[in-house]
C-alpha cells in the first residue's frame, strides 16, 4: 500500500529546523561519501570507526553531556547576540598597553573579513604567498623605521611574550654569564607577570628595579628592559641607563609604544639593542585583550637570533625580486633539545592589519594621530591641574597619572557612570589614557568625574604646552618607502590589497591539504561576531560587570572543550599551540613540586614529535630525552620502557601526539601511558591532531593528564596566514590548581583569556555542530585521508598505517625512493602542484623526503579528486623523467612553478611544450577555469639567507 502525501510530507518542526549546519560544514555529499566508503570497503562511518580506531582508545562513557543540541545559524547568532548584549562597551581610557583605535572600513572589509586573507596558511610555499609576504615586509619596515632598529620580525604573540623573547634573546646574544635580568618597575604589569613565568624555569633571576632615579642596581646582569613611556605614562630619557648598562656588559631592550615613536626619538637612536611592543593601536580592535600583533626589533648583530618569523628579500629562478621566510626551514629556532624558543604561530592577520593601517595613513597621518592623542592628554592634564588635581609626571605621551587622595574609587565610578573607563591605580591615584578615539566631550566628562569645573577648552589648549621632553622629540624620518605614500586613497588601497590577495593561494580558491595543520572550513556564520562592537571593543581590564557576556561565553566554551576531551578543566589563556604546550608542562612541573618531587625534570619525547614539543620542554626547565619509534611509526615500547627505567625517579613527563605525528592511531597508547604513570610521571597528549578524535575518543580518558588544543585547527579559528592561533590547555583534576594564572603557575600570555576576540568562532562551531556533527566531521576527515591513501598507494607508497592498513586523518606519501631513482624531490612535487592550482601538503615533516596529506572533512569529493588527479599526473611526469624522456635538471617538475611571464617569453628551449607547463592535465574539466598564475618562479632561499634584506628595499633595487 503506497504512503499518503501526508505521510511523505515533512513536519512543520522539520521545516522550521532547516538544514543542519553540519551538512554545510562537512564537504562530501551523502552520495560522495558513499563512494569514498565503498572505495575503502566499509558500509558507513561507524564501520570505518570500528576498523580504523583501536578499541583501546574508545571511551566507554557517554561524551558531550554538557553540549546542547546543535543550533542553526540564525539560532546560534541570536544566542551569541544575547551574550553580547550582556557586555557594556565604554570609552576605553584605561591604557596599560591597550588603546581605543579605529579600524578603517577598507581594511576591515578587505582584510579582516576577507577569506582571501583569513583562510591563508603560513607562507611556507612562498611562490604562492607573495601577497601576505609583501604585507608582512611592510609590517617589518614600519616597525624597523619607527624603532630605529634595522631588523624586525614578522610579529609575535603579544607584548608580554615579545618582552620574554627579548629577555632570552639578550641572554643568548650577550657575553655576560650573569643570570640576572633587570626590569624597570614602571613596566606593564602583565609584562612583568609573563616575564616571571618565563624566567623561573630557565634559571633567570628577575630583578624589578625602580629606575626613576636613572640609577642601575649594583652588580652584574646580562640584560635590562626599560619602558618608553612607562606604564604610569612617565617619559624619561633612557639613553643614560642604556649607556651605563652597556658599560657593565649588558644588552638593553626597550618596551616602546609604536604610536609614540612617531614623535619621540626611537630606541635605536638612543642605543638600545632591541625594542618590543604591540601594534594593537594601529587599527586592531581591543578584543578584550587579543589577538594583537606584537613586535620585536633588533640590531644587525642580533638578526640571526630572532625568534619567530622573518620575511626576507630574495630572487626567483629568473632573477626577479621575490620574498620568502628567511633564516629558517620550517619554524625558526625549533631545534628540539637545542631550542631557544618555541614560537610557532605568529599574529599574521593582525600584523597585516597594522601594516595596512600605516600604509593607509602614511607617516603624516600617523604623526597627526599621535599629535592629536598627545594634545588630548596634555589638555586633559592642564584642565585637571586648573581644578587643583596633582599630576604625577611632567612628561608623558598619552597617559596622565592623577593624584586624588582617598578619592580614586569615586572618580573611577563617576567616570563609568558617564560611559568612560578609567584605571584605578591605588586608593589615591587614577590613570587616564587618551587615544585616537578621544574627543573633547570625553575630556569634559573626565574633568566632571574628577570634580573639576569645565574649563574653556580652546583657551586651555592655546595656553598649554606639549608634555613631551624637548630633547626627545623625534627628528629622523620614517616610512619613507613608496609603499607608505602610494595607496592613500581608498581606491588605491583597495586595489593594492586585491593585488596582494591575487598573489596568494588561500582556502577560498583551493584545498590546502597540509598534514598536521587541519586547514578546514571557517564558516562565515562562525566569523560574524568577531567584529561586533560588544565583543571587539572590550578593554581587557574593563570592570567585570561590563564583560559578563564574554566571560559567560568563555565559561561555556571551556566546559564544552573539557567535556569533549575528557579533562576536568580548561584554560583559554595560551594564545598559541606552543604556549599551550608550555603551560601544560609548567602545570606538570608545579604538580611534582607540590609533592616534594623537585628532582623530576626528564621529559620523554618520541622522535616523531612536533618540534615545538622539545622547545617547550626546554623552556619549562626540563631535560629532553628522545624515545625511538618502530618501523610502523609508533612509539617503540621497548625503548620507552628502557628510558623510563633509566631515568626512574627523575621522570617528569612524556609528550606524545595522538594520533601520532605519523598519522596513525597507535593501538598501544594505553600501555605507553601506563608505563609512564607507573614510574610516577605525567602524560602530555599533544592535541595538534584532535581533529581525528573529537566525538570518538577523549585523550583525558585514555591516559592523558594534560593536553593543549589547537582552536585554529580543530575548532575553526582561521589560520590567518600564520596567526592568530589559540592553544588552550586542558588538564585532569589533579592538575587544575596549576593552570596558568591560577596561583601556583603564572600567566603565559598578556591577557587573562589570551585571544578572546576570536573565541566566538569556536563557540559558534561547537554550538552549531553539536556532538553528533563533530563526530561526523571527525570520521569524514578520517574517511577522506584513507580515501587519498587508497587512491594514491599505487603511485606513491604510504609510509605508515595502523595494524589494519588504515591511517588516521592524514597520510604520509613516501617520495624517498623516487628521489633516489630520478632526482625528483618533494620540493619539485610541491612546486608542480602550484601549476595545478593546488597548495602543497606538508613537506618533509615528520620524515624528510615525504609529503604529509590532510584533506580534512570540509573538502568535497570533486576537490579531493582534483588533488588525487594532480598527484597522479605528477607521477606520470616523474615516470617520464625516469625513462630519460626529460633530463633530470630540465623538466616540468624541476622548473615549476611556471609563471605567465616565463611562458610568454620569446625564448623557450625546454624539452616539453608550454601548454604542458601551464596546464599539466590538459583538457581535464575544471583545469583552465581554475588556473592559478604564480607571480614568481621558484625562489632561491639560500641567496636570501646569504644576503639578508628584511625591510622594503628601494623600488629600483631589483630592476
From TrEMBL:
* Glycine dehydrogenase C-terminal domain ranges (all copies): 777-898
Q: Which Pfam families match?
A: GcvP2_C, GDC-P
Which UniProt keywords are present, listed alphabetically?
A: Oxidoreductase, Pyridoxal phosphate
The record lists the catalysed reaction(s) as: N(6)-[(R)-lipoyl]-L-lysyl-[glycine-cleavage complex H protein] + glycine + H(+) = N(6)-[(R)-S(8)-aminomethyldihydrolipoyl]-L-lysyl-[glycine-cleavage complex H protein] + CO2
- Which stretches does the entry tag as region Disordered? 1-30
The annotated subunit structure for this chain is: The glycine cleavage system is composed of four proteins: P, T, L and H.
> What's the gene?
gcvP
Cofactor(s) required, per the database record: pyridoxal 5'-phosphate
Q: Does the keyword Zinc apply?
A: no
Carrying N6-(pyridoxal phosphate)lysine, the residues are 713
Tagged with keyword Oxidoreductase: yes
Q: Name it.
A: Glycine dehydrogenase (decarboxylating)
Q: Which residues form the Glycine cleavage system P-protein N-terminal domain?
A: 23-450, 457-741
State the organism of origin: Pseudonocardia nematodicida
Amino acid at each position: 500500500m503506497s504512503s499518503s502525501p501526508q505521510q511523505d510530507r515533512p513536519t512543520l518542526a522539520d521545516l522550521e529546523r532547516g538544514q543542519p549546519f553540519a551538512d554545510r560544514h562537512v564537504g562530501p555529499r551523502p552520495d560522495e561519501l558513499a563512494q569514498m566508503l565503498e572505495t575503502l570497503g566499509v558500509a558507513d562511518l561507524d564501520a570505518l570507526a570500528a576498523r580504523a580506531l583501536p578499541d583501546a582508545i574508545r571511551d566507554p562513557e557517554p561524551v558531550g553531556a554538557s553540549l546542547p543540541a546543535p543550533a542553526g545559524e540564525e539560532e546560534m547568532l541570536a544566542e551569541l547576540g544575547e551574550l553580547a548584549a550582556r557586555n557594556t562597551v565604554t570609552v576605553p581610557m584605561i591604557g596599560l598597553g591597550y588603546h581605543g583605535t579605529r579600524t578603517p572600513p577598507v581594511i576591515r572589509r578587505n582584510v579582516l573579513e576577507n577569506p582571501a586573507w583569513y583562510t591563508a596558511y603560513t607562507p611556507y610555499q612562498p611562490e604562492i604567498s607573495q601577497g601576505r609576504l609583501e604585507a608582512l615586509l611592510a609590517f617589518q619596515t614600519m616597525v624597523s623605521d619607527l624603532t630605529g632598529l634595522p631588523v624586525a620580525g614578522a610579529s609575535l604573540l603579544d607584548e608580554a611574550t615579545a618582552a620574554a623573547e627579548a629577555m632570552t634573546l639578550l641572554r643568548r646574544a650577550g657575553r655576560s654569564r650573569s643570570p640576572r635580568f633587570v626590569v624597570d618597575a614602571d613596566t606593564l604589569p602583565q609584562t612583568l607577570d609573563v616575564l616571571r613565568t618565563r624566567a623561573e624555569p630557565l634559571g633567570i633571576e628577575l630583578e624589578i628595579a625602580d629606575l626613576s632615579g636613572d640609577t642601575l642596581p649594583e652588580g652584574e646582569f646580562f640584560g635590562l628592559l626599560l619602558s618608553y613611556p612607562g606604564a604610569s605614562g612617565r617619559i624619561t630619557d633612557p639613553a643614560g641607563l642604556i649607556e651605563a648598562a652597556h658599560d657593565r656588559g649588558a644588552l638593553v631592550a626597550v618596551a616602546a609604544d609604536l604610536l609614540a615613536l612617531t614623535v619621540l626619538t626611537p630606541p635605536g637612536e638612543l642605543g638600545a639593542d632591541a625594542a618590543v611592543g604591540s601594534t594593537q593601536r594601529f587599527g586592531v580592535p581591543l578584543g578584550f585583550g587579543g589577538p594583537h600583533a606584537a613586535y620585536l626589533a633588533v640590531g644587525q648583530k642580533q638578526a640571526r637570533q630572532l625568534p619567530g618569523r622573518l620575511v626576507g628579500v630574495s630572487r626567483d629562478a629568473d632573477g626577479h625580486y621575490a620574498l620568502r621566510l628567511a633564516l629558517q626551514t620550517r619554524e625558526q629556532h625549533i631545534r628540539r633539545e637545542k631550542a631557544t624558543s618555541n614560537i610557532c604561530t605568529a599574529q599574521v592577520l593582525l600584523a597585516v592589519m597594522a601594516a595596512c593601517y600605516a600604509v593607509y595613513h602614511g607617516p603624516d597621518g600617523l604623526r597627526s594621530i599621535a599629535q592629536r592623542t598627545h594634545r588630548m592628554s596634555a589638555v586633559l592634564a592642564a584642565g585637571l591641574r586648573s581644578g587643583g588635581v596633582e599630576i604625577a609626571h611632567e612628561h608623558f605621551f598619552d597617559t596622565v597619572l592623577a593624584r586624588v587622595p582617598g578619592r580614586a574609587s569615586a572618580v573611577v565610578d563617576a567616570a563609568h557612570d558617564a560611559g568612560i573607563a578609567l584605571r584605578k591605580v591605588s586608593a589615591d591615584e587614577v590613570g587616564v589614557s587618551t587615544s585616537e578615539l578621544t574627543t573633547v566631550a570625553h575630556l569634559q566628562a573626565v574633568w566632571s568625574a574628577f570634580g573639576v569645573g569645565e574649563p574653556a577648552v580652546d583657551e586651555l589648549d592655546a595656553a598649554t604646552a606639549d608634555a613631551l621632553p624637548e630633547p626627545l622629540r623625534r627628528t629622523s624620518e620614517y616610512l619613507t618607502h613608496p609603499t607608505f605614500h602610494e595607496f592613500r586613497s581608498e581606491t588605491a588601497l583597495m586595489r593594492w590589497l586585491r593585488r596582494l590577495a591575487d598573489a596568494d593561494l588561500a582556502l577560498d580558491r583551493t584545498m590546502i591539504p597540509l598534514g598536521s595543520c587541519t586547514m578546514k572550513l571557517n564558516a562565515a556564520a562562525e566569523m560574524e561576531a568577531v567584529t561586533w562592537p560588544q565583543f571587539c571593543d572590550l578593554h581587557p581590564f574593563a570592570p567585570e560587570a561590563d564583560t559578563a557576556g564574554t566571560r559567560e561565553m568563555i565559561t561555556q566554551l571551556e566546559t564544552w572543550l573539557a567535556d569533549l576531551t575528557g579533562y576536568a578543566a580548561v584554560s583559554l589563556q595560551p594564545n598559541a599551540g606552543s604556549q599551550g604546550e608550555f603551560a601544560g608542562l609548567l602545570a606538570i612541573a608545579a604538580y611534582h613540586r607540590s609533592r616534594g618531587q623537585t628532582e623530576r625534570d626528564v621529559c620523554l619525547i618520541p622522535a616523531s614529535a612536533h618540534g615545538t614539543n622539545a622547545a617547550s620542554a626546554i623552556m619549562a626547565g626540563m631535560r629532553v630525552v628522545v624515545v625511538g619509534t618502530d618501523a610502523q611509526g609508533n612509539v617503540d615500547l621497548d625503548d620507552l620502557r628502557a628510558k623510563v627505567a633509566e631515568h626512574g625517579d627523575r621522570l617528569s613527563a612524556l609528550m606524545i601526539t595522538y594520533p601520532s605525528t605519523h598519522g596513525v592511531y597507535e593501538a598501544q597508547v594505553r600501555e605507553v601511558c601506563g608505563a609512564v604513570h607507573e614510574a610516577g610521571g605525567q602524560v602530555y597528549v599533544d592535541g595538534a591532531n584532535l581533529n581525528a578524535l573529537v566525538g570518538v575518543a577523549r585523550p583525558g580518558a585514555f591516559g592523558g593528564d594534560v593536553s593543549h588544543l589547537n582552536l585554529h585547527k580543530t575548532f575553526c579559528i582561521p589560520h590567518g596566514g600564520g596567526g592568530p592561533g589559540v592553544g588552550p590547555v586542558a588538564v585532569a583534576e589533579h592538575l587544575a590548581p596549576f593552570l596558568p594564572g591560577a596561583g601556583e603557575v603564572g600567566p603565559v600570555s598578556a591577557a587573562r583569556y589570551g585571544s578572546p576576540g576570536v573565541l566566538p568562532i569556536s563557540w559558534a562551531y561547537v554550538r552549531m555542530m553539536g556532538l553528533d556533527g563533530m563526530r561526523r566531521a571527525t570520521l569524514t576527515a578520517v574517511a577522506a585521508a584513507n580515501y587519498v591513501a587508497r587512491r594514491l598507494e599505487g603511485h606513491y607508497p604510504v609510509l605508515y598505517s595502523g595494524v589494519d592498513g588504515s591511517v588516521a586523518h592524514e597520510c604520509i606519501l613516501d617520495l624517498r625512493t623516487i628521489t633516489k631513482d630520478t632526482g625528483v624531490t618533494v620540493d619539485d612535487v610541491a612546486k608542480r602542484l602550484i601549476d595545478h592550482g593546488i597548495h602543497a601538503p606538508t613537506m618533509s615533516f615528520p620524515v624528510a623526503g615525504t609529503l604529509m596529506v590532510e584533506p580534512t572533512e570540509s573538502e568535497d569529493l570533486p576537490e579531493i579528486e582534483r588533488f588525487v588527479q594532480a598527484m597522479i599526473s605528477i607521477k606520470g611526469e616523474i615516470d617520464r623523467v625516469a625513462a630519460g624522456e626529460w633530463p633530470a635538471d630540465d623538466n616540468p617538475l624541476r622548473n615549476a612553478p611556471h609563471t605567465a611571464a616565463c611562458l610568454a617569453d620569446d625564448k623557450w628551449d625546454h624539452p616539453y611544450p608550454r601548454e604542458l607547463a601551464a596546464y599539466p592535465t590538459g583538457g581535464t574539466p575544471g583545469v583552465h577555469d581554475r588556473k592559478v598564475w604564480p607571480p614568481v618562479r621558484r625562489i632561491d632561499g639560500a641567496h636570501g639567507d646569504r644576503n639578508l634584506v628584511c625591510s622594503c628595499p628601494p623600488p629600483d633595487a631589483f630592476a
